[in-house]
Amino acid sequence: MTLVAASPEAPEFVMPRLGALLWHAVPRVLESMILPVALFYAGMLAGGEYAGLGCSAAWVFGGIMVRLVRSSRMPGTVILAGLSLVARVVVTVLTGNFRWFFLPPTCGVFMVSAAFLATARGRRPLAERITLDLVPLPEWVVAHPVLRRFFVRQSLAWGFAQLANGSLTLWTLLSFELGTFLALRTSLVALLLSGAAAFSVLDFRRCLRALQLRA
């Protein structure tokens, strides 16, 4: 673990190991971002497009219902997944074409890219909000100049990564059949976002080392 000494007024902060941070974050990413699309693809292969839609909807709204019944905390990522799925269904029904099932989230990717880039130099970059959703940090650590620069870098990096993500998705959506689109888009975007995630993790660890040295 990384031990970061606090200011005289703040308690000592021990950063959890990287494995513990991933254990906290990965289930949310899987539940709200990866599995809905994977289940749509699996259902489509097994029973057609409506079966894929049913599988995806059952997963997302099933998770929401379970949390409501249990009165559990509803993660923001799950709420966004539900809203995204509703938008997809509405567009698909209005157009009568399952190809456009993937258009609303693609538009959302461009909006997320714009939000990252627009807030990069602001008081609270979007990267900071997302980091604190996934990794709980004390306020004095968040306010440290090393972390402030980290949030700016990450907002810019993820802004451009999501811009590339949306562009790749739109190109493959308009250029290929649905099955080819799903396979090609998934592989290309996985490579792109894996590279961005690796950069974020390495950058975060470098910042922790810098904090340790400066404490």
Task: Describe the structure in your own words.
The chain is mainly alpha-helical and 215 residues long. It contains 8 helices and 2 strands. Mean pLDDT is 79; it is low at 1-8.
Secondary-structure blueprint:
Elements: E1 2-4, E2 13-15, H1 18-47, H2 49-70, H3 76-95, H4 103-119, H5 126-134, H6 139-142, H7 145-175, H8 178-214
Antiparallel strand pairs: 1-2
Gist?
With 215 residues, the chain is mainly alpha-helical. The protein contains eight helices and two strands.
Q: In DSSP terms, counting alpha (H) and pi (I) runs of 4 or more, how many helices?
A: 8
Task: Note poorly predicted spans.
Answer: 1-8
SS-based class: mainly alpha
Strand content: under 5%
Into which percent range does the helicity of residues fall?
A: over 70%
* Biggest pleated-sheet summary: 2 strands, antiparallel
In the sheet with the most strands, the strands line up as 1-2
Counting DSSP E segments of at least 2 residues, the number of strands comes to 2
- Please state the CA-atom Rg, rounded to the nearest Å: 19 Å
Which key features would you list for this structure?
single chain; about 220 residues; mainly alpha; two-stranded antiparallel ribbon; 8 helices; about 80% helix; about 5% strand; globular
